[in-house]
Design goal:
The chain is globular, with a radius of gyration of 16 Å. It has a single domain, classed as Alpha/beta knot. The longest helix has 15 residues. β2 and β3 form a beta hairpin. By secondary structure, the chain is an alpha/beta fold. The chain contains 8 helices and 9 strands. It starts with a strand and ends in a 6-residue tail after the last helix. Helices cover 42% and strands 19% of the residues. The strands form 2 sheets. Strands 5-4-1-8-6-9-7 form a 7-stranded parallel sheet, sandwiched between helices. A two-stranded antiparallel ribbon has the order 2-3.
Length: 189
């Protein structure tokens, strides 16, 4: 089985006016995705943001739950947050995974649209099961990653579709669905 890494990207994203921006870090995204990532045995969850002020927010949140009262109050949350790491860029995260694994990861991102290199969850799950290369799954906020950045990823997962035409899940919900589709254990009843 390949190791699975996760990245929550905050830049470069489009806003609703199609301007490139950096989105804000949220407490819920850090906590909830960390817990989901830990449940699905994600090796490391990178929170990716280029701005130092946002790095300080990430550090405050993770430090609270990893040291002192937060760790004592909720050790399970502390354990999940042990796998969270702030990093300023996608390139730095890829570099770190490459150093840890001895080979570059396959970069897989997500979008609510389809592209020529869009693949199914079953396909990526098969790659994870083959165990040949680490997988780096990138999620984001905002109105989609900037197009030049999107073109640099190896694969793009198909959108998550519900029965209607509305398709705008919060990243925490999307992360849970994606990780379940990619890394769940089949249970025999």
């Amino acid at each position: 089985m390949s190791k699975l890494y996760l990245g929550l990207v905050h830049y470069p994203f489009y806003n609703k006016h199609m301007q490139v921006i950096a989105t804000a870090v949220t407490n819920f995204d850090i906590h909830d995705i960390a817990r989901t990532a830990r449940t699905y045995d994600v090796e490391k969850y990178f929170v990716i943001h280029p701005l130092e002020i946002q790095a300080e927010i990430i550090k405050k949140i993770t430090d609270y739950w990893q040291h002192g009262y937060g760790k004592e109050y909720n050790p399970d949350r502390s354990e999940a947050l042990d796998h969270v790491q702030y990093i300023p860029s996608i390139a730095e995260a890829i570099k770190q995974i490459t150093e840890l694994e001895g080979k570059a990861p396959l970069t897989v991102t997500t979008d609510a649209r389809t592209y020529p290199n869009t693949v199914t969850y079953q396909y990526v799950r098969g790659l994870l099961e083959q165990g040949e290369v680490p997988i780096f799954l990138l999620l984001g906020t905002g109105f989609g990653l900037e197009k030049d950045t999107m073109s640099k990823f190896d694969l793009i997962l198909e959108p998550i579709w519900g029965p209607g035409d509305y398709n705008h899940l919060c990243v925490r919900s999307a992360a849970a669905i994606m990780l379940d589709r990619l890394a769940s254990v089949e249970h025999v009843k």
